[in-house]
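SUBJECT: A protein chain and its fold
Encoding: whole-number codes for local backbone shapes
RECORD BEGINS BELOW THIS LINE
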Amino acid sequence: MKKRLLAAIAASMLFTVNPAPPLAVTVSAEGTTPGAVIYVATNGSDSNNGTQNAPFLTLEKARDTIRTLKAEEGLPEGGVTVYLREGRYERTSSFELRQQDSGEAGKPVTYTAYPGESVTLSGSEQLAKSAFVPVTDTSVLSRIISTEARTKVLEADLAALGITDYGQLSRHGYYLANDLSEVPPMELYVAGQGMTLARWPNEGTVQMDEILDPGPTRKDPNGEVHTRGGTFTYTYDRPQYWTQADDIWLDGIFGYSWEWSYNKIASIDTAARSITLRYGEMSGLFKNWYPDFHFAQNLLEEIDMPGEYYIDRQAGKLYFLPNAEFTAAENPDIEVTMLKSPMINALNASYIDFSELVLENGRDSAAVFMGGSHMRILNSEIRNFTNSGVLVNTQSRFYYNNFEGAPGTDHAIISTHIHHIGGTAVTLAGGNKTTLAPGNNTVENSHIHDFAYYHKAYNPGVLLSGVGNRMSHNELHDAPHPGVLIFGNDHTVEYNEIYDVCTTFSDLGAIYMNAGEQPHERGTVIRRNYFHNIGESKAGVEGVYPDNFTMGLTIDENIFYKMGNSAIKNNGGAHILTRNNIFIDSKIPYDYADMFLGDEPDDQVPLNYMPKWQALFAANNNFTGTPYMTKYPELADFFTENRYYPDTNTFQGNVVYNPSVPRSVTTNVYGAYDKFGLVQYADNWVTATDPGFTDLAGGDLSLLPDADVFDVIPGFPDIPFNDIGVVGKAGTTAGTDSHPVQGVAVYDSEVTVDRWKTLKLRTAVLPWNADHPVLTFTSADPGIAAVDGAGVVTGQSVGSTAITVASAENPLLTATVTVNVEAGDGVMDFTDFESGANGWLQDANRSIEKIGTNRWYKVLNGASSLSPKTFSEYELSFRLKTPEIMGDNVTLYIFDRQAGSGSSRIGYKTRADGTSAWLLYNSAWTVLKEVKLPGHDLQPNTEYAVKMLVKGGDISVYLNGAFRLKGNDPGHNAEGKVGFYVSNVSQMHFDDIQFKAPTTTLAGIIPAESKVRIAAGEQRQLQLAFDPADTPDTGVTWQSANPAVATVDSTGVVHAVYEGETLISAVSTVNPLIKADITVTVSSIMHETDFENGGNGWPVDPNRSIAADPDGNRRYKLLNGATGLLDRSFTSYQLEFKLKTPPVMPDNGILYIFDRQDSAGSTRIGYRTRADGTSGWILYDTAWQKLTETVLPGHDLLPDTEYDVKVTARDGDIAVSVDGSPRLSGSDPGHRPSGKVGFYTSGFAYMLFDDITFSVLP
């Protein structure tokens, strides 16, 4: 019976396809059949019968065989399986599928790799390593700028190999730029890694200078934006070498941050240093707060980095500078992409599976599913397609077929690894926009990364449009722009892990929506996703970003971790429910942006949105009786709700926890920014303690069963963190599960770098796609050359050392580079802003501005900027340009070696009394040194040369070569960043910022006193200090401008001759431009101090300080128990000073005035208060014997009162008066002949002294 049944089944499956023998049928032992089986092999033939022993050669033959089977017999139970045997199948055209190629429910057609075998469908042509030979053509070599590259570059004669279709580089970019886009050109791959079309600069970008002609915009008539471009000048010098290049393209931003562009150079005027573009930019060329940037590409001249290539399309030659993979392997996989249409192109096909396949290396797309239903890609790998990955219900922009039919439904991409895609990795369109019937198209359990390298802007990993499509359980990362774009209705985004997106551009998010003009597009749910490490180093990069009044979302049970800006940014939207999310270390957990809110005529809603909303609702009869009104009943209230300040957003049951990253000060008690208080809040928890994670530090963000959050927020869900992301494996079963490091390579075995300069080592990990490619760098002698974790070497001192490069995964795999450090010019870093900011931050508050012919770095009021590099000891010089107005309270800070939030600081301040000051602060903002100037030292609209020397804790400042301040911060940071802050001024401009290694060369001569008073006949030794302190250049010559007033000898002793004023100068014998000027006044006033510019010889420390009154006047403050002696000796003198008492004058308070103290002692004048309410003025001798006393019935000095005190000391005769009234008179026959004068307080909290003047006795 069983035999008869088997025979009948076999007979029923036989059919004739001339000239092929019958199709093979697999039958189980139980007599059931899984369907027909067809075999395809790289060594097959389409004249075979498709059996295992006689396989077909092509997919097309298998497809056609299935068509015949369907037409003649119908599909068998179990459908048809096409097994592809091991190998690589080159595709030169699309695999076309139509409705007649479909399977049925329960009878699918499956194209799959034979179990246990690896199958690749490739759109490339392979090249042998032997096809690459050294370049000998001198006309080619002479064009290559790098002399080293000339000796290493190879060429392959593609034309001689029969390869003649190289494609053309073409215009593409934002919006209308794609109108001119052609099929992407040929690309080169080595071992599966895309090589780099030769570019400059190799890393980073450069900027436009001036805009000479902005060119047309997208709004100009007759498509002018496609016919000509604008013109800008440049400051870099590289184009002078490009005169023979005729197909140069620029990649970058030339205006708004989102208008990325790939634009051809029409012409270069090297004399005028200008570039004219071939095509217009969408908004024209212009400069704004977001810095423009670009790099040049497709230049033979710029081949100088391993892995760079260039195709000479006229000669048919490929030029290539070998990379490590090419060099290390005997027969590396070298391929050039050829396929110009989608690898799989299915129109109205259904129930077809592609499984266990690798699709790679196409200029267009991997797969297109238009119409039909239940098309699936399962357990496959899609890589290296320039245009896009998988398009569902969207055709390739370069390969349109006539398509008539409804959008397809239930298509799926499952457990597939999709990477290195030039545009959008997966596009899911579909669903009925009239009935809101879902498309049910999905991408699930897939690993999607490294996309949008060719179409860089608005090309996400997943694009959802239409109605009711879904992405779930995916891992998505590494992209220049968004991770996900959403348009339409009722999509679901769940269980995805998304990170490291928006790495190049700003004003976008990991998930971005812009549906404000279509408010009926709503209903999308974003739930149970894990967003992390997004926007940490780039402003304007958000997590979930419903922009421009997007409405009607649910953002539920997501986890946001380390979000550098806003985790959720709702820009004016409405009916957005944000519920039960967890925010960890997010700068702004929830941001209800208000930039477009308002009801003024020129605000966004009245001006741009309300007219469109009214037209939309009118055209749809207010959606009455439509599925939209049924599903979204809030549409009925659309115009009765407050559209100008929406108040229908909810922030409910969310957890906010910032253990290491501080939340923005703009957020409220709920962790939200909500300027107008429009959001509805309920049951949120902002916590300073861990809400109950299993292991936050270890990366396990699941909640413990007894997590506190379950008690604090009743009903808070147990978010299934461990279910988020890919479950199991994404990719082919036969694919390699891991890629361990197999080798480490360096491209330069020996390098040379100047002291203080940097050089990045050129290294490679083998294979290039190793799972853990991290390298470690170790210098044998960091004192000669230091190296950081990125392989950037800094020369420290002259000599040679070795740097070992090792795999972090396998430290036994190493390579060594010899580093030679030469003396160089001592410059550690220099930025003139002529060719960019060199790492200095650029944004709306910090930008480069051209004034005249020079470019300056502009820092706006309230902004700060720090150097990109760290420094330890240095000499900083820069040019400073002040604004038109320099009013009161202007502040300029120079941050010295900032680490974290702390640093020493140099400050310049103007004050309301017309004075200004230079100050040195420590990290706690304590004033360590202050030099006050009688006027504003920095005048409006003036350029200055500023220099700052930093050695250890010593910090000195010079302005236009003149000394301003020197002090010491004993708590200085060992190293850190240096920068600027400006306040209470519109802006300040900086230029020529240079850091040099400190030297012992003399920088300045610092007098101990800048003003000296002596009486006629007196002499004084003038004291000098030299900057830096360790300079050997201490020789000076002394000069007096007016010897009739005062002379000075060769040792600096000044002799007072006659009343008047002169300038005594100490001039360096090494550098006569460096000198110190001391104003010497010969008069009856021997010394005076008002404490507005420091102590002037009076000691200053925490017990003896200079304190400012509320009105800004400074006094000398002696604390209880402190002594202050002027560092100067007197013989006979008249002392006058102002004394201010504290608010409380206790009993037994003491004030001493020391008279001519020397090592043997001094006469003392004392004032004492007593417990009986009396007070007294007392004269003591050097042995503390009371010589005379004046007893007063009450306290002579009352609380909080200012007094004028005068003391005369003529030989031994002493007299004291207060406010002009005598208080004490006596004589000390044992007085000291000369000595210091000063004060001591005891019992009082403090005493304040001011305007201390010593005069010659009349």
